[in-house]
Every structure is written in C-alpha cells, then in structure tokens.
Amino acid sequence: MHRVRTVLNNLVPLAPLIHNAAGPERFASWLLRSGSECAVMVSSTRHYNAPVQAEPFLNGSSSAYVEEMYNAWLADPKSVHVSWDSFFRNSAAGAAPGQAYQPPPSLAIPGRNQVPVTSLTPYLGGSGVPALGGQIHEKVIDDHLAVQAIIRSYQARGHLVADLDPLGITYADLHGTYTDRKGAPPEQVVRHHMLDEADMDRVFKLPSTTFIGGKEKSLSLREILQRLETAYCRHIGCEFMFINSLEQCNWIRQKLESPGIMEMDNDEKRLILARLTRATGFESFLARKWSSEKRFGLEGCEILIPAMKQVIDKSTELGVESIVMGMPHRGRLNVLANVCRKPLEQIFTQFAALEAADDGSGDVKYHLGTYIERLNRVTNKNIRLAVVANPSHLEAVDPVVQGKTRAEQFYRGDGEGKKVMSLLLHGDAAFCGQGIVYETFHLSDLPDYTTHGTVHIVVNNQIGFTTDPRHSRSSPYCTDVARVVNAPIFHVNSDDPESVMHVCKIAAEWRATFHKDVVIDIVCYRRNGHNEIDEPMFTQPLMYRKIKNTTPGLDKYAERLIQEGVVTPEEVKDVKDKYEKICEESYVNARKETHIKYKDWLDSPWSGFFEGKDPLKVSPTGLKEDTLVHIGKKMSSPPPNAAEFIIHKGIERILKSRMEMVEARVVDWALGEAMAFGSLLKEGIHVRLSGQDVERGTFSHRHHVLHHQAVDKATYRPLCHLYPDQGPYTVCNSSLSEFGVLGFELGYSMTNPNALVCWEAQFGDFNNTAQCIIDQFISSGQAKWVRQSGLVMLLPHALEGMGPEHSSARLERFLQMSSDDPDYFPPESEEFAVRQLHDINWIVANCSTPANYFHILRRQIALPFRKPLILMTPKSLLRHPEARSSFDLMTENTEFLRVIPEEGVSTENPSAVKKLVFCSGKVYYDLKKARNEKNLDKDIAIARVEQISPFPYDLVKKECAKYPNAILCWAQEEAKNQGAWTYVQPRFNTTLNGSRDISYAGRPTAASPATGSKMQHLRELKALLDDAMAA
Ligand SMILES: Cc1ncc(C[n+]2csc(CCOP(=O)(O)OP(=O)(O)O)c2C)c(N)n1
Ligand SMILES: [Mg+2]
C-alpha cells in the first residue's frame, strides 16, 4: 500500500473544467472533511468549455444525449461518431462559439434511467441557473457533465484514497518513507473543480452508470459525494473500471453503491466474531505450546479465516460442492484447522518429533495437503475441501490446483464450473514477484484449461520476508497482474471485518455469475517476523513499532460489537474460552499418539484404486489385431462427412500413407501413438494430450485434429470417434507456457488414476522452464506427500544438427534425479521389473521403436500403481523408414521391451562377437548404419536400453553374458557429461561386478548440448560412430 502518491501523480482525470471566478476549488474539502483532508480531487486536462449555448443542437432533450455522448467520449473517443469526436475535441481546445459544432448523428431514444435535462428545471430555482425559453443554460449541462465525471472518477480511482491499511502507512509512496499519514490522503490528489459550496445543495440527475441513488433518480451534490465516499473510499478500494464489459462494471457498481448494501444483521456479526476468535485462538494456542517452532502464523491477518469461510459459504449456497485450494505457508495450519476442520490432534502431532507410520520422506507441516468431506453448517450442504500439498516454492502450486480443479469438473461433467471451484491464496510479495502467477492467469479463459473462475485471496501483509514493497515490486499494487484477465480486484482493510466479508461475498457471487477470476487483496500486517523466531526490527523498525502499537483485529471488532450492543463482554470471553478448551483437549489427545501418518495428509485420495489389486501385477499391453486394424483405419480415414469436409491435400496424402501402413501391418511413430491412445480410449480410459501445438504435432506428424479448409472452427478428431462407448479424448494446444501448463497437467493427473495425461514439450529442452514442477512435484511428490501420478512427459530429444537448443531434453538431469541405487542389483525374480518400477520415483525411457512407445504408454495404465514417465521422443525417427514396427510387436503376448537385444547376424555366433555396443534412442540407427557400412555386422552386436531408469540390470546382465568374448561399450550422441553415460556407468559396473569393463564412445564433455555448425555436428557424429565401431 505504498503506492498511492506515485499513482496519483500520474492521474489524468477527465472532469470538465467549469469556470468560476473564485478559481479552482477542492470541493470534497468543503464537504466531507476539514482543512487539507480531501477526497478525490481532480486536475482537469480536458476542457469542455465552448460556449455551448451558441451550439444550435444543444438544447432541450438533446442535452441528455449530448451528455451521454460526452461521457462515452471521455471514456473512449473512438466510441462516439467522428462528428462528436471532433466537436468535443474542438470544444476542449477552446473553439469559438458555433465553431466546434459539426452535424451529429440522429438523436438516440433516451435510455433507461435517463432524464432530460429540461426536466431538471424545477430543481434549478435555488441555484440561480435560469432555463430560458426551453433552452437550458450551459452551466446546467456543464455542471451535470461535471457531476457525471466526478462519479466516474470515484468509480475509477476512489480506491487510491480508500482507507485500506490498518497500519496507516498506506499513503507513503513506493519510494517515500514511513510516516503516520492515517486519514490524511496526499495533497497531490487535487480536483480543480469550479463547483462551489453554493452548488452542494443543488440536485443533479444521476446517470445510468451509478446506483448510489437506489430508487432515486436525482440527488443533491452533497449526498452524491457522501455516497460515493462511502462506496469507494472507506475500507474497500475496488479496481474494476478497466473491465471491458459494461454489464460486469455495472454489476460491481451495484454491489458497492446500492444504499445499505453492506448492512449486516447481528447474527452475521456474531458469526464473524466467533470465526475470528477461533482464528486468533488457534495461533495463540500454538504460540503458547510451541513457542520456538516455526509455523508461519497468521497474526495480523486472522480475518483470512472468516474471509475464506465466507467465500466457501456463499459459493456452496450458490451450488458449489467441491473446493480445491492452494496456498502458501502463511496461516496454512490455521486454514487446515479452522477452514477445513482437520482434526486438531493430527495437526498437533506434527509438532511432536514422532516416527512416521508409512513410507516416504514426508514434508514439513506447513506444506502438507489435506482432503476433507464435511457438512457446511451454514448452508447445510455437504462439501469437499482439498488443500493441495505444495513445496516451499511460492505460487508453484497455482497451476497444479487449476489442473486438479479442471479434472474434477471434467469427471463430474461440470462444464461450467458450477459444482467445483478453485480458491488460491497468495502472499503479496510472491503474487507480484513470481511469473507463474501470470502464466496461471493466462490459462484461466482457455477452453481446455479454464476452471470457470478462481477466487484469489492475497494476504497482503505489506512485506515479503524482510523486504518491503518499495524493493519488491514496480507495480502500484501487488495485484496488478490480475488486470491482464480483466479480473476485478477488491482491496480491503483487514481491520474492518464486515467490509472483508462484503467483498468475499461479492467475489463468490462474481464467480458464480460470470465464471471469471476475481481477486481479494486483504491489506493487513504481519505481527511477528517472517516466522516466529525471526526478528523483524532489524529491518523494519518503524513498521514494527507501529505494529506493536496496533490493537489486534479481534479485540477491535469485539469492542465494536460490544459498543453496538451486539454482544456482551462476557459472551466474547465465553467464545474464547470454549475454543481454548477444544484446543487443550486435542493437545492432550495428540500427546497420546506414537506415530504420525502421512496418509492423513493426502490431498487426492484415489478411493478404490488400490483396493483388491495385486500390487505387483501388470495387465497385458498387447492388443488383438482387430483393434489395431480398427484404430489404424479410423486414423487413416477422412471425416465421415468427407464430401462436405474439405481437408488439406497434404492431409489426404498422410491418411493414404497411414492406410497403406495398416494394410502392410506396420506403424510409424504417430500411428503407434494413436494405437496406444485409441486402445486406452476403447477401455474407457480418459486420454489427455496437452502442450504447445500438440494437435498437429510440432513436427507435423500427428494430425489429431483435422481442419475444414473452408469453414472456420470446423474440425474432426478421429480419436474421438473410434467406439461409441469409448473414454473421452482431449487433445489441446496450450498457451506458450511450460511451468504453468506442466503444473496444470500434473494437477489434472492427480484427480483420477484411470487417465493417461500427457504433456509434450515443443522441444525437450524447454522443459527447463518448468523445472520447479519437475523437481518439486514430479520427481519427489510421492515421497513427500504420498501422492502418485502417472503423468507422461514427452520430450523431443536427439542431436540432429539443429544447434545447441532443440537438441537435448537434458536426459542426464532426469536420470540424476532417479532414486534407484547405482550400487544395488535387486534380487532377480519374476517380478523384477515391476518391483523396480514400484520402488522408484519415476521412469525414464528413450524408445527406439513405435511398438515400444505404444507399449510403454499403455503400461502406464496397466501398472497397479502410478509413476510419472519421462520419455525422450524422437524427431527424425518420426519419418525414418526403419523406425517402423510390425503389428506382430503389438499384438497379444507382446510387451514393452526394457532392452531390445541384437537381432542381426551377429547373434548367429555370439561367441565370435568382438564388441557389444549398448545405446539408447535414435543413435541406434546411426550405429547400425555405420556398422553395416564398415562390414562389421558379424563382429559387433548392438543392444538398446529402452528403459534407462529404473536400470534393467537383469536384462543388461543377460545381454553381456550372451557375448562372453566381446568388449563392452556404451555409445551415445550426447556429450560425455550429458546423456545417460554418468547414470549407466556405475550401474553397468554393478551389473558386471568387476568382471568386465565398459568403455565410452561419444562426444567429449561440453558446456553446450550441441554445436551450432552443421559441419561440426557431422564431424562429431562420424567420430563417435568410428569410436563405437573401433575394435
Ligand atoms: C520461489 C520462492 N522464492 C523464495 C522463497 C523464500 N521465501 C519464503 S517466504 C518469502 C517471502 C514471501 O512473502 P509474501 O509472498 O509476501 O508472503 P508472506 O510471508 O509475507 O505471507 C520468501 C522470499 C520461496 N519460498 N519461494
Ligand atoms: Mg507478505
């Protein structure tokens, strides 16, 4: 809240200047406050000062029209006819009488709530403004225009002087110093206005753009100003006039301006007090019992709890049944206790140093998630609340929450978001500092990503750790990022609980009405340091001196309600004591616990999924040939209404070649993928493929959406029309975001285990802009939060002479984060493979055939548990004539091959084989070609490690044993410090147990993933192939 002065300096208010001999006046100063205290004061830059009486059209009822025109012109000069534009411009520039006029368009019929200026004549008596012969004096018009502009000023900029900050340091600008300016808005807010005290009791017609009149169509200027001050300049500051929809602007005006709109009955007030008491009591209880524990308490913003409950109550009342929440550390335990009503025992046991009863590494208490189904006592409806577990990385959970919400809406058939909604909480510093917030906002209105409106609440304690807003943002408000999606933003003073409740109610109603995002910015403070053992006076001495002298919000509100006679002091105490007793009892029970259970903190339970399943049994992934043929043909056929649906000639060719493949019983990469997706759809599994340009495929190979060449938006998605009762298929081009979209898909994958959710990077290397989702959620999510995900990351990867970028998906990083032990060869058994998969954090693979790609995708669903799959995918192999697979490798009794052994002539006499080369991915085809060219087919065997992690120790051992006299080599196209080498080397050593060595053939170490020179690329490739083929 340190931004007001800066903003006001930049204000360009639009009120007309009306001449007055007394000179410019600040009228709010003579109305509402004394001395220099003033409300919005406008410095006019546009002068509507042509002597309008000289204009022949400015008389009678046309004045109302002119008034509307002028108002519209002020808002946007292009919104009016050019003749009006030129008239107002000329007039503002001071054109001589009669000169500004150009013939206007025909007069419009006066709209609802419009009153001809002539009808005001009776009101004008006292003000000495005569109406002569049916013609209104120009002052009447000017004064009405002025009043209208004033109203608009309040609506647009009233928030700048609203009393929003409980500390009263609001009025320091971003680069100023802290001073006690409470109640004293800056002098710079000047309205050069020529209406004077004598005008205050004149009555003005109200325009249709305000609701301050209630049923009244006109009010005195004094009353107008009073009501505008009440609506816009007290404890609520609303930014909404940038919203492009008139309907939405009017909706908000009505919610803020209607007389008496904020009135509450005593029961409502008592409810707020009770909730505030619990929120405050919870923190002070923890502070007393565990004074030296970090908990990131809510002190200074306890109102958050009643606020969230208000949003939930109202939303439930409006039909919502499930709320998915994401939030940072601040106040999280309080939210779990008092919003979700998580048993206090479970929270308190987290403070004791107890053993965990289940597997996993767990997480600190203020990161854990939760899931609760309970009765909402206010609305008497059942409601599901989930708080999604999150890492320390602020805001990273935002897109995850959105994905989870979207998935829940999808499975419930809630296409408009009426039943499921998301609620996101933010800190002020993180909300404006983290780019993921922007990425998440940009998903909010995309057809395949929208959650139909999110309520955002910012705990704006005016500090981030030790940094105050003067050093943490350049925007006036911490919430400005929300303006990009036209979300209304309600700033509200945390010390006025009723105002907070009012904006929460509006926010819930806004979401239910328009299904768009909305932001509540609770301006508050942080009573303690960043955490409870942190000293804030080191860095914010003035602010914290102020905080020390600030009465806690609960005490202020209790006092107020006592004064109003709503409660007695005894009642206040009673509510406090009761909650204290509840906490004490839970504390006693918690002390009896001997273990903590991570499962108590699961945010996405998959009820029924694991029950009755053999945890080590994988269903078959091979298919009946009929199914392959059926899907293959569908993927090769034009839309059923082919006669009307014009497809591109190139697509016709692709479909034809697909059909030829089906007839020849082979698949290429794209067809193999379609077989995997299609067959899962046949089994009722939902498949979702999301990422940049995935519909066509970056490399123009997929074509899952065919476009009518003559009709906009007419498309055909073959995979949606395979079987009448198939699972739903979603393929969607995403916004150009990785962090946001990958997070979203991860969230989507959390809702239902029976779905194949895939995210594809445009090129694999772009995954690094989503690194936080990879590190914090995908690789470690299960260990920290006992939450599984079968998300598939498709990462185009291979060095093909395209330069440093677009070559490497950074396979080495994924492998480095794999959790299997390089020194441990697990016991060999029938279940070797599935046990390994069960125990690892994720699967990393680099397939070289379409059949293997097909199987590994299907295996994601065939597994009795879920693991993320990180898949390096090819580029040139998409069209490589050898990178095709026969149906024979996909039919029943076939499966994913973790290692593809050599199948060529060298297998005829394995003991004569001189060298066994292991490799992975596309380089196999280069090696094979080089071997053939060098006539070494009998001498060298090549084995492909398709699943790199978990490492197929058993199969690698078998391959090595097959060629007892061969030297062993690992060949890769990546640099030595990249690719799989550093991962496989120790694992080969473990496999071989010191009996044989394995050498390296590949590029030398490098800082960059690939050269930018084609020539250099080819030279390097030749060298590595020579090396791999050398004896
Ligand atoms: C991405 C990220 N960077 C840095 C941090 C370290 N950190 C933890 S809390 C915090 C300050 C957060 O300030 P704000 O968002 O205003 O929340 P508050 O603690 O004030 O409630 C910082 C910098 C983090 N958790 N995440
Ligand atoms: Mg903060």
TrEMBL record:
The enzyme's E.C. designation: 1.2.4.2
Catalyzed reactions per annotation: N(6)-[(R)-lipoyl]-L-lysyl-[protein] + 2-oxoglutarate + H(+) = N(6)-[(R)-S(8)-succinyldihydrolipoyl]-L-lysyl-[protein] + CO2
GO annotation terms (biological process): glycolytic process; tricarboxylic acid cycle
Boundaries of every Transketolase-like pyrimidine-binding domain copy: 667-880
Pfam families reported in the protein's UniProt record: 2-oxogl_dehyd_N (PF16078), E1_dh (PF00676), OxoGdeHyase_C (PF16870), Transket_pyr (PF02779)
Recorded GO MF terms: metal ion binding; oxoglutarate dehydrogenase (succinyl-transferring) activity; thiamine pyrophosphate binding
Signal peptide coordinates: none
Keyword flag DNA-binding: no
Subcellular location: Mitochondrion; Nucleus
Keywords annotated in UniProt: Calcium, Glycolysis, Isopeptide bond, Magnesium, Metal-binding, Mitochondrion, Nucleus, Oxidoreductase, Thiamine pyrophosphate, Transit peptide, Ubl conjugation
SUPFAM superfamilies (UniProt xref): Thiamin diphosphate-binding fold (THDP-binding)
UniProt xrefs under CDD domains: TPP_E1_OGDC_like
InterPro entries found in the cross-reference section: 2-oxogl_dehyd_N, 2oxoglutarate_DH_E1, DH_E1, KGD_C_sf, ODO-1/KGD_C, THDP-binding, Transketolase-like_Pyr-bd
Family: Belongs to the alpha-ketoglutarate dehydrogenase family.
Protein's job: The 2-oxoglutarate dehydrogenase complex catalyzes the overall conversion of 2-oxoglutarate to succinyl-CoA and CO(2). It contains multiple copies of three enzymatic components: 2-oxoglutarate dehydrogenase (E1), dihydrolipoamide succinyltransferase (E2) and lipoamide dehydrogenase (E3).
Identification of the protein by name: 2-oxoglutarate dehydrogenase complex component E1
